[in-house]
Design brief:
It is a peripheral membrane protein. With 1089 residues, the chain is α+β, with helices and mostly antiparallel strands. A hairpin with a 4-residue loop joins strand 11 and strand 12 (388-390).
Length: 1089
């Protein structure tokens, strides 16, 4: 902060030019630390800047260092420090004669090459941000993912204890400075109209906190102290105030307000966002806004299904390269749930019966381009009075079938365009009658048996004694008819559900015949593990796959008898590969497709079974360059098996319910990753603590899968092609993938490249089409088509204007995770940080006025959240989980690779919401500080029956300085959920939600809130249920009090603060938002010279 003062001091006192300060030693008393200078060393200014010290000097020998209570970074010096107690406080420096800059001035040259990140700090014992590491077995039921640490007699503290008050002011912002006479002029050129950088050169819009009388001479001291055991913002060596940096919360709120204000007004008086020609070339609403807007398909796919990274595509590859790292691609989620809650609106996939009106059956009944086989879209041009059409993708001209012919109006459009959904909507479905395609030797017809869902239940010793077997059997017996999905038959009256089957396994596979003609279930055991098979022959006629309603009595008998039959088992060895192979044989023998739901407990260790895995866990490799060997799948057995399942139309859902033992999720996770299923993992599983979570996830996994035996193709306009696809599945060609199933929450990231220069005609858009051919629940083949139109541009500023930060980061994350397995963690993190710096450097070089001050960091409007998101990503557990278990790390990497843009956004920047104002009653308001109203819900007297969106529950920034001791905050990241209770929460609120009057009496071991008949209890529970429903996953709830063992885990999700640990490789990837922004600005200035 006083770096310029040090330069001034050095120039005034030549003796200091030959002297150097030794590294600071941590002073546990919180007093000032005096450092002795050593004339043998140099670079004292570099030391000041690197360590971020606030230095005052009153002599030539001693320096008084004012620093927060954080251990200093390690500086490579060769002198032994000497700590001396001060006798008196040295006077401060005189005011500077030059005006301060908006950013710290450039640093002197360093003798070592610049690092990719701020200097490292020593590793600490706290668990990392993100996933909690495991801990040794406990005598009490495990609490989810407890932090890995030795047993303690007291709860571990998440942060250092509070220090005694300092006699000097901590470093704050803004510092006392001389009045600024001539602030830098604002930029007058480039897009968009820019703010005055971060921070702004003037503090006119920043209102510093009021100071008490005792601190009137100490600028930078805040009135409100942080919660206990939480590091103060001033203790993180900030030289910027967070309120002067781009806020994710403010950007998200502004985006929603902007689109709500600009939405089209319908005849009914409601406002709709239209995806079509009216908004071509403009970025779509952010993922947080889509759920709150009424979306209308007007000829281009909604961002829910296809979200581009650039809505204006550069016409040449050279223009794309000049952007410094902007990605050109798409985030495609074709089976995303069609209905989104928010503002009373919904979006739906329309099913068109007109596309297949050719009448001849087979492929000829669907009108497609004769050359590229693209499906019909609103961007086909009609010629010769409607007798031919020109493809918008390849330009080929195709004759219109007689059955599809229609005349054209005076504008050249078909007269029936308003009635044909494929001609006016960006997303639609068509029936695919007759023989649609042939995969190998297996032909897929329109009319086939309904898909089947098989539940494979582990009955080994570990599964039985953890309660998994009894829990699953009991839940399926009670709830299976309720959550099994169904679909209306083509006749519009009959409801068709998938057939179901059951098998159990330990070191052999047990099939069950549930034919309705039997009086009780029959068990058939397959002990041949070398060549496993289905013993029932044709699975349908043999009674393996049965209709739920016709065999309900036998199913009930079976599920009730399984826990009793295996209650005394002593079999500890289990298999997995033969279970999948035998199930695959059962499906292929009857020509059916479907899904296998595996409920598994550990590492397959049976000696005689294929797919046996060895114990290879070595957590010492995590955080090093060798961790890729530990996180990569071993062997090719499970990969080959997963591809066989995809080719045969069988998807796999895997539920890994382990204790603390290693299960090699990196290898087993290939089954759902490639086949299109879902992956779930429960650490230290016990039925009494994880029962509700497993049961809910099982229901969601079964009910959300509506597509089987899938084949997806990405088509693009001439000049653009698909270069790579990230996100799993079986990639069989350029832009082509196959999957046994397609879960609704799965999304792929498609990278695009230039094949040639695009046309200069602004009226000719770039088109992209996603066509997903699949089998529905009724057994009929369908094709779901999504069309997207993008503008073209020859200006770099237009590219920045149309960039989408959510899609860009989703693509970069998935590509970086793939790179992590190939080249290691440093390459993966650099693949995220380098584009961030390159994009902002190119923007500063090409799109900002040359007269702008280099002390200002100017960010593009659409990408101003790029630094905070990238910093949160690189220090997340998916990229830096060195202190969590290997299985947890692999699990998170798989999840991030399968996420859509919404899920990745909320995972890397969690939602933090104050809930102590629910319900917004007078009693709650009276006992809360008035300044918290800006962080809570909006004004109004909503009742507890109001919709959650109408409560206007607001998000706050993920930082410790936003927490108040008299507040209650709910944090969720799509995987886990916390309810943090301050030490001074209102007793009225506690009584209405927990039934106790003190925070100390709240039970923190409960994972569900008490069901009390109060408005506050009902609203909080509804909020938790709503979040779980929207995330399509049961988020386990942790109740956290100050000082509890899980508080440090909760605080690590506050991603704007410095992480409580640093990676073992010494690269220091745990920087705070402030530190990372300073680092990015430094790199930009370095690149610009």
């Amino acid at each position: 902060l006083l770096f310029d003062n040090c330069l001034s001091m050095k120039s005034q006192k030549p003796e200091l030019q030959q002297k150097q300060w030794a590294p600071a030693q941590y002073n546990s008393t919180g007093r000032d630390t005096l450092l002795r200078m050593d004339s043998r060393l140099g670079h004292q200014c570099h030391l000041v800047n690197t360590m971020g010290l606030l230095v005052n000097c009153n002599c030539h020998r001693h320096i008084r260092v004012i620093r927060p209570h954080i251990r200093p970074r390690v500086i490579r010096l060769h002198t032994r420090p000497r700590v001396i107690r001060p006798k008196s406080h040295p006077p401060s420096h005189p005011p500077q004669s030059h005006p301060p800059q908006a950013f710290p001035p450039p640093q002197p040259p360093q003798s070592h090459p610049p690092q990719a990140f701020p200097p490292p700090q020593p590793p600490q014992s706290h668990p990392p941000q993100g996933f909690p590491p495991p801990q040794p077995p406990q005598s009490h039921p495990p609490q989810g993912f407890p932090p890995q640490q030795p047993p303690q007699s007291h709860p571990p503290q998440g942060f250092p204890p509070p220090q005694p008050p300092q006699s000097h002011p901590p470093q704050g912002f803004p510092p006392p400075q001389a009045p600024q006479r001539h602030p830098p002029p604002p930029p007058t050129q480039g897009y968009p109209q820019q703010p005055q950088g971060y921070p702004a050169p003037s503090t006119a819009n920043y209102q510093p906190n009021q100071l008490t009388q005792s601190s009137a001479q100490q600028p930078g001291i805040h009135q409100m102290s942080p919660p206990a055991n939480i590091r103060s913002p001033q203790q993180q060596q900030r030289s910027l105030h967070p309120d002067q940096m781009p806020s994710a919360v403010h950007v998200l709120e502004d985006d929603l307000r902007r689109f709500q204000a600009s939405a089209s007004l319908s005849s009914s008086g409601t406002r709709h966002y239209e995806s079509g020609p009216a908004n071509i070339g403009r970025p779509p609403p952010l993922v947080t806004s889509v759920d709150r807007l009424i979306m209308t398909d007007c000829g281009s796919s909604l961002p829910t299904f296809m979200r581009p990274t650039l809505s204006s595509v550069p016409r040449t590859s050279d223009l794309l390269k000049s952007s410094g790292g902007l990605a050109m691609g798409l985030i495609v989620a074709p089976m995303m749930p069609a209905t989104k809650s928010g503002s009373g609106g919904s979006v739906a996939i329309a099913t068109s019966e007109l596309g297949g009106s050719g009448g001849g059956g087979g492929e000829d009944s669907i009108v497609r381009c004769i050359r590229c086989r693209a499906y019909m879209s609103p961007y086909m041009a009609w010629l010769d009075g409607g007798r031919r059409f020109q493809c918008g993708f390849c330009g080929a001209r195709t004759d219109t079938p007689q059955s599809y012919f229609a005349h054209l109006d005076q504008t050249g459009c078909r007269v029936d365009a308003a009635y044909r959904l494929e001609l006016r909507l960006g997303s639609y479905e068509l029936p695919a009658p007759g023989l649609e395609y042939r995969r190998g030797d297996r032909a897929t017809f329109n009319e086939s048996p309904p898909p089947g869902i098989v539940f494979a239940i582990d009955v080994s010793y570990r599964a039985v004694h953890s309660g998994l077997t009894a829990l699953v059997c009991d839940h399926l017996r009670r709830r299976l008819p309720a959550f099994l999905p169904s679909e209306t038959a083509p006749d519009g009256q009959t409801q068709i559900s998938p057939r179901v089957g059951f098998l159990t396994y330990d070191r052999s596979v047990h099939f069950y015949n549930l034919s309705a003609s039997l009086s009780q279930p029959q068990s058939l055991i397959v002990s041949d593990l070398e060549e496993p098979f289905a013993p029932l022959g044709a699975a349908i006629s043999g009674g393996f796959l049965v209709d739920l309603s016709s065999s309900a009595t036998l199913i009930d008998q079976l599920l009730e008898s399984i826990p009793q039959q295996f209650a005394g088992t002593a079999v500890s060895d289990i298999i997995l590969g033969p279970v999948v192979e035998a199930t695959l044989d059962a499906f292929t023998s009857c020509g059916s497709v479907g899904k296998l739901v595996l409920l598994h407990t550990g590492l397959p260790t049976c000696e005689s079974a294929p797919g046996k895995l060895l114990q290879r866990d070595n957590r010492k490799l995590l955080g090093t360059e060798k961790e890729s060997s530990l996180l990569s799948p071993v062997g090719d057995y499970y990969e080959a098996l997963a591809k066989r399942c995809s080719d045969s139309g069988l998807g796999v859902d895997l539920f890994v319910c382990t204790d603390a033992a290693y299960a090699d999720v990196a290898t087993l996770g290939q089954l759902p990753f490639i086949t299109g299923g879902s992956l779930y993992k429960y650490a230290s599983f016990r039925s009494d603590t994880h029962g509700n979570q497993l049961a809910s996830d099982l229901e969601l996994a079964v009910s959300n899968c509506l597509a089987f035996d899938c084949s997806m193709r990405i088509r693009t306009s001439a000049g653009i092609s698909c270069s790579d696809i990230h996100g799993g599945f079986n990639i069989v060609g350029e832009g082509i993938l196959e999957a046994g199933a397609f879960s609704s929450d799965r999304a792929v990231a498609v990278e695009l490249r230039h094949d040639s220069k695009l046309a200069d005609d602004d009226a000719e858009p770039v088109l992209a089409q996603c066509a997903l051919l699949y089998t529905g629940l009724s057994g009929h083949r369908r094709v779901r088509v999504h069309n997207l139109a993008l503008a073209t541009t020859g200006q770099l500023a237009d590219m920045y204007r149309s960039a989408d930060v959510d899609a860009t980061l989703n693509l970069l994350v998935k590509a970086a995770l793939k790179l992590l397995l190939k080249k290691g963690p440093l390459e993966a993190r650099s693949a995220l940080v380098s584009p961030c710096v390159g994009i902002l450097t190119a923007y500063r070089r090409h799109c900002v006025s040359a007269g702008s001050s280099m002390g200002q960091l100017i960010l593009p409007e659409t990408l101003k959240l790029l630094p905070v998101y990238v910093n949160a990503i690189v220090k997340s557990d998916a990229f830096q989980g060195a202190d969590i278990s290997t299985d947890d790390r692999s699990y998170l990497m798989y999840l991030c690779s399968m996420m859509d843009a919404v899920a990745s956004n909320v995972y890397f920047y969690p939602r933090l919401m104050p809930v102590h104002h629910l319900p917004p009653s007078r009693e709650a308001d009276d006992e809360s500080d008035s300044d918290e109203a800006q962080d809570g819900v909006g004004d109004g007297e909503e009742s507890d029956s109001a919709d959650l969106c109408e409560l206007n529950l607001k998000q706050i920034r993920c930082s410790v300085d936003r927490l108040k001791q008299n507040g209650v905050y709910l944090l969720e990241n799509g995987i886990v959920m916390f309810l943090w209770l301050g030490s001074k929460v209102s007793s009225t609120w506690l009584l209405s939600v927990f039934g106790v009057n003190s925070v100390a009496n709240v039970r923190c071991d409960q994972t569900e809130l008490p069901r009390l008949d109060t408005p506050a209890s009902r609203l909080i529970r509804r909020l938790v249920d709503e979040i779980r429903l929207r995330r399509r996953r049961h988020l386990r709830l942790y109740i956290v009090r100050p000082g509890d063992k899980f508080e440090s885990w909760f605080l690590n999700f506050l991603v704007e603060d410095r992480a409580s640990d640093f990676s073992a490789n010494g690269e220091g990837w745990g920087s705070s938002y402030v530190d990372f922004l300073l680092h990015v600005h430094k790199e930009i200035r370095s690149k610009l010279g």
